[in-house]
Amino acid sequence: MHATPHSQAKPTFSWKALGWVLLYFWYFSTVLQIAICVTGYSGTNGLRDSLLYSSLWLIPVFLFPKYTRIIAAAIGVVLWAASLAALSYFVIYGQEFSQSVLFVMLESNANEASEYIGQYFSLKLVLCTVIYTLGALFLWTRLRPVYIRRPWHGLVSLAILFGLVINPIAVKMVTKNQGVVPAATTLMGRMEPAAPWQFVIGYFQYRSQLNSLNALLSKNSQLPPLRNMKDLSGDAPRTLVLVIGESTQRGHMSLYGYHRETTPELDAIHKNDPRLTVFNNVVTSRPYTIEILQQALTFADEQNPDLYLTQPSLMNMMKQAGYKTFWITNQQTMTKRNTMLTVFSKQTDEQFYMNQQRTQSAREYDTNVLDPFKKVLADPAPKKFIIVHLLGTHIRYEFRYPESWNKFDNKTDDIPGGLNADQIVDYNTYDNANRYNDHVVASLINDYKATDPNGFLLYFSDHGEEVYDTPPHQTQGRNEGAPTRHMYTVPFILWTSDKWQQAHPRDLAADVNRKYSSSQLIHTWSDLSGLRYDGYDPTRSVVSPQFIEATRWIGNPYKKGSLIDYDSLPYGDQVANQ
């Protein structure tokens, strides 16, 4: 008799095998995202998206289960290299890799680029690399084929592709009436936290924004200079500083009478230094950073919003006047939204980009700007113009200051009534952010003062912020379609050195309550710095004897009939006034 061989058992689906494959592909993105969440540098959106879009690598494993380890090894090498580079960047700089990093590195000279690379070699980094690699190898050894019966393996793979890629694009195209490119761009933003997309998408976004940047810079370089410019300040060496804040409304500053002590350092300077002038009635024309700076840093305003494209900017003007110009920023560098900021920065001679975070909602402190500011103050150029752009009190407020600055946490006895627990947190963290912003602005003034300068420093915030201040105390943020006063009220502070005051004596005491819009800033700056040219209008300078109060328009100038007089807005009682 001949033995009958047993028929070979068909492979079966294993949840355990699926779990190990998922862990393997998730590993390369989620280690970094978990570190970001645990250290408090950002929220959980990156972790969520990295889990979702790392799951795309399941598709080839489902389709070709016999080659699971080979496929996983080939994909894993790419994921390991990309994720290790991103993880190393976070370990060294405390920031998530983004297109802004590519911009700073690729736009730097060879020496500066080598400094970035040189910092990657350290014992700490070697240890992290070894541990990280061993973790990946361990997970790879646990991989087993994930068998899904035909034709279900194809249908499951298609469902993953549809759910993560095709459907999000289709939904944007249908519900938002977007084209394929905008819809795909939104999808890429969600895929970016997952390896290796942070490099692929980062480079794509960098090239896209760089093209827009270069086009705008090319147009700016072709603008004719201001005609008949004269510098009434003579040839004496000088340093002039413009500090731009972010999302800081003056109603939450004790310097302006707020009941909480949110600006103790500026309060002390104001009390003890007669050279600090605090203007009490300045508003912004738009509650968004790019839109207001297109006006404040140029000759554009609400009724002529496109003049920033056809006339020189403040940076162009100062270079024409013979100043060496600098831009120090803690804002994100290279994003679609911030391209215009980068255009403005590239109009200066030297730039310092201190924030390369992938998202605005990431922990980043404005003390980043203090060291480069001191460096620039020591530059030997006889005439210097320095712009410092802060992240200020931008949402999320708790990411704008170290935990040791939690002065107002858990306070409920001096806030608007009816706020829920989350709103109370927002209210208190905004005041904490204001207190830290006070420290940064005061430090800039004190560091500037310590150089015994000939010049002045002007600080203003781009726009304000509604933080449950206006009854019924349920609005937070900024909405041009439903404006409140607190979205537009901004601090406007001038510190003048003794040397500059002696050479340019001014008594500003009578000017501090004038109604003014920061959209007219370029005329005030020209007046203060002694620059005169065709187009300068002293009636639009808040410090000029010829100043004339004008309607302070707010609203979207590109939307017909949307401009309104700021002073027509109803008043909302704040806690300080209750």
Query: Spans of 5+ residues with little confidence (pLDDT < 50)?
Result: 1-7, 108-113, 573-578
Mean pLDDT across all amino acids:
88
The global form is elongated
CATH class (first level) name of the largest domain: Alpha Beta
The figure for the number of domains is: 2
The main sheet comes to: 7 strands, mixed
Question: Over the alpha carbons, how many angstroms does the gyration radius reach?
Answer: 28 Å
Helicity level: 40-55%
CATH fold-level label of the largest domain:
Alkaline Phosphatase, subunit A
| Structure class | alpha/beta
How far apart are the termini? 103 Å
- CATH superfamily of the largest domain, by name, is Alkaline Phosphatase, subunit A
Share of residues in strands: 5-15%
| Lateral strand order in the biggest sheet | 3-11-8-2-7-5-6
Number of strands: 15
Please tell me the CATH architecture of the largest domain by its name.
Answer: 3-Layer(aba) Sandwich
Please tally the helical runs, counting DSSP H or I stretches of 4 or more residues.
18
Explain what this protein looks like in three dimensions:
- The protein has 578 residues and is an alpha/beta fold.
- It folds into 2 domains: 15-206, no CATH class; 237-577, 3-Layer(aba) Sandwich (Alkaline Phosphatase, subunit A).
- Helix content is 43%, strand content 11%.
- It is built from 18 helices and 15 strands.
- It has helices at residues 15-38, 45-54, 58-63, 68-93, 99-107, 110-118, 123-141, 152-175, 180-191, 197-221, 264-272, 289-296, 314-320, 339-346, 370-377, 421-449, 498-503, 521-529; strands at 230-231, 238-245, 276-279, 282-283, 324-332, 350-355, 383-389, 456-461, 466-467, 476-477, 492-496, 516-517, 531-532, 553-554, 564-565.
- It has a 7-stranded mixed sheet, with helices on both faces. A two-stranded antiparallel ribbon has the order 1-13.
- β9 (466-467) and β10 (476-477) form a beta hairpin.
- α1 packs parallel to α4 (68-93).
- The longest helix has 29 residues, at 421-449.
- The radius of gyration is 28 Å and the shape is elongated.
- The model is unreliable at 1-7, 108-113 and 573-578 (pLDDT under 50).
